[in-house]
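Here is the promised in-class demo. Please do not try to memorize the tokens; focus on the logic of going from shape to residues.
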């Protein structure tokens, strides 16, 4: 078992409808099936994506908008097939479910801070254990315990990802490119997409694959509305009272443009440096 207690970092073991560590810390499975590892003041904090954003993203996925990414993920060349998977910021679990299924991954975890995300993903992904936790804190996994960690349109805590991956394990990142949905920006002042912040070389990792997934898609008004609704820009547009739905066209040919980057953790990166004998003692 690779899950660890967020309070003492000891192993968490399933006991009936909860998970417990040897120090007696206990975390209950929610009615919907997810495990909340939030504790103390973290509890009840309503951060992460809202329910409206989650439902809009679900409709976009059902409309097949991200199918080119699903196909690219399914075709990823893993030299050693992963048997354990963690998705950070899994949202409603769309890509987590596809990755686990297409690569035959037996043990999978989804982690998200949003209560609506974990409720939705736990309801749809019965084979995965869904965790409510903050990915910006220490990840609730033992050192070197996972084969694959993925972050798709979500934050990337690199030091923690490296810690929880086993030597030779994979880190997978998907993030938008500068021209992603650029045609939509002609109609609405959406937040800009930053420069590609992920370096080609990550210390302790070898770059294994880097793909540009791009396609021009004909999108109807309803999908354009959902793309805005699921983006962080929705908060500002709503706050400013912009009548943004009416500014969108009836349909639009828009560019999907994403980078998919796969890294492999160095096989000997967890080895301790040799202890040098003291010759001048
Ligand atoms: C843009 S969504 C991507 C969801 C999913 N990976 C997908 O592509 O469909 C980003 C997700 O990260 C989650 N998130 C943001 N900050 C987080 C944090 N500090 N800890 C855990 N999850 C977080 C949000 O709640 C949201 O579900």
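The designed amino acids, position by position:
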């Amino acid at each position: 078992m690779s899950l660890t207690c967020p309070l003492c970092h000891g192993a968490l073991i399933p006991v009936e409808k909860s998970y417990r560590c040897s120090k007696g810390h206990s975390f209950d499975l929610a009615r919907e099936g997810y495990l909340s590892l939030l504790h103390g003041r973290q509890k009840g904090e309503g951060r992460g994506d809202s329910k409206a954003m989650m439902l809009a993203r679900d409709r976009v996925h059902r409309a097949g908008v991200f199918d080119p990414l699903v196909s690219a993920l399914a075709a990823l060349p893993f030299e050693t097939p992963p048997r354990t998977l963690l998705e950070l910021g899994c949202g409603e679990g769309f890509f987590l479910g596809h990755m686990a299924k297409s690569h035959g991954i037996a043990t999978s975890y989804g982690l998200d801070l949003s209560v609506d995300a974990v409720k939705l993903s736990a309801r749809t992904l019965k084979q995965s254990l869904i965790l409510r936790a903050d990915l910006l804190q220490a990840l609730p996994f033992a050192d070197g315990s996972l084969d694959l960690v993925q972050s798709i349109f979500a934050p990337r805590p690199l030091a923690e990802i490296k810690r929880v991956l086993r030597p030779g394990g994979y880190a997978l990142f998907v993030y938008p490119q500068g021209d992603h949905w650029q045609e939509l920006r002609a109609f609405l002042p959406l937040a800009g997409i930053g420069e590609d912040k992920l370096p080609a070389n990550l210390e302790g990792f070898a770059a294994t694959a880097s793909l540009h997934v791009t396609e021009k898609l004909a999108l109807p008004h309803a999908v354009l509305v959902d793309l805005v609704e699921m983006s962080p820009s929705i908060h500002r547009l709503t706050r400013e009272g912009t009548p943004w739905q009416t500014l969108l066209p009836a349909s639009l040919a828009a560019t999907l443009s994403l980078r998919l980057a796969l890294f492999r953790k160095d096989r000997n990166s967890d080895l301790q440096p040799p202890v040098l004998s003291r010759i001048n003692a």
